[in-house]
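Quick question, first post here. What does this chain look like in 3D?
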Amino acid sequence: MAWTDRHCRVFHRMISRQVLLYTEMVTAPALVLGGALRLLDFSPEEQPVALQLGGSDPAQLAKATALGAAHGYGEINLNLGCPSDRVQSGRFGAVLMTEPDLVRACLERMQEASTAEVTVKCRIGVDDQVVEDSLPEFLSMIERTGVNRIIIHARKAWLQGLSPKENRDIPPLDYDLVFRMKQMFPGLHLSLNGGVAHLSDACVHLEAGCDGVMIGRAAYQTPYEILARADCEVFRSSTAQPHEAQSIAEQMIPYMEAHLQQGGRLHQITRHMFGLFSGQPGARHWRRRLSELGAQQNAQIADYRLLLEERVALSKRQEELDLI
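> Answer (accepted):
Ran it through. Tokens below.
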């Protein structure tokens, strides 16, 4: 939430044409009761993109699903994995893994509300659940509703005692359990999530039998490293030659110009681009100068173009030093 907004997704789509992008989690009450339909906005160039919903009221989720489908989302994903205090207080996210009957009702109503595909993102379990028993029961319940695509974060969520940040790192990963679930439920499309830091790691999981891999933080922090070769290495596209990171930075300019013309700020887009050159010459300079640019209230495209020129010059100097 507050990270993979529509500007971030346009940027990521510039790097890969085929990976499936997800929105930040949007709560059903915000759409149905608050009328915050702006949260559903996305650009056509983002496709394929899925809408991720949070909620626990079957009627609200049905309405939110219908709204999402009407806005053009082909997939509506119910988040059953978020462990934050705010999410728990709203009775949705990972806490719902303790209420399978309510989850079943939510999924059934969501599927009745539109023809968009309904999917689920969950954890392997929560708190003191014996995941070897509770997870198969939970997946079996989901399968009976007709939902067949599930993303499993291979960590427990400890709703008591750990912060949301700690829940992303401290509970141990159990990839083997996810693979056992794939063997137990061959008819389900199961994607693995959690701790995947490199595209090569994702490829290993896919080769081992997972139907998909979801990458969150690493795709945000090092987007070029994760996404640039995904089309050819994961999707086997023979025509998908990755663009250079510099080219991606330049291709963002028309989108930036349109955003500025609509009254937006450059920082709303560039804040998602700090990791574009991660691991490449001039990456530190890029991050520092992009941060300085973001601090300017009236930063313009000319300022951004100047930064691109600086990066090219710095990269050339680095290449000359390497040759010497």
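The chain has 17 helices and eight strands.
Residues 6-233 form a domain with the TIM Barrel fold (CATH 3.20.20.70).
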